[in-house]
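Review form for a predicted model. The reviewer records the input and the model, then writes brief findings.
Reviewer: anonymous (R2)
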Amino acid sequence: MTAEHNLREEFREYGDALTERRKSHPGFDGLVGRYQDLDKRILDLESGNQPFDDETLGRLRRERVLLKDKIVQELTSG
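Model under review:
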């Protein structure tokens, strides 16, 4: 079974900062939006709702990790 990679759940310590930064920084909000869209796409693939190959799924997962790293970097840099 696959599970959503919810940023508020994964980074509970940054919950308020995540919400505030999304409101005040459109670029950050876009970054989080791209992460959420990509996570949903990966979940759809993993659940068998769409055809895919392992290479595509691996590429999307790596992209999700990179986006998550950027989000954490933004949250921790002030």
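Findings: Residues 3-8+26-76 form one domain.
Further findings: DSSP finds four helices and no strands in the chain.
Recommendation: see findings above.
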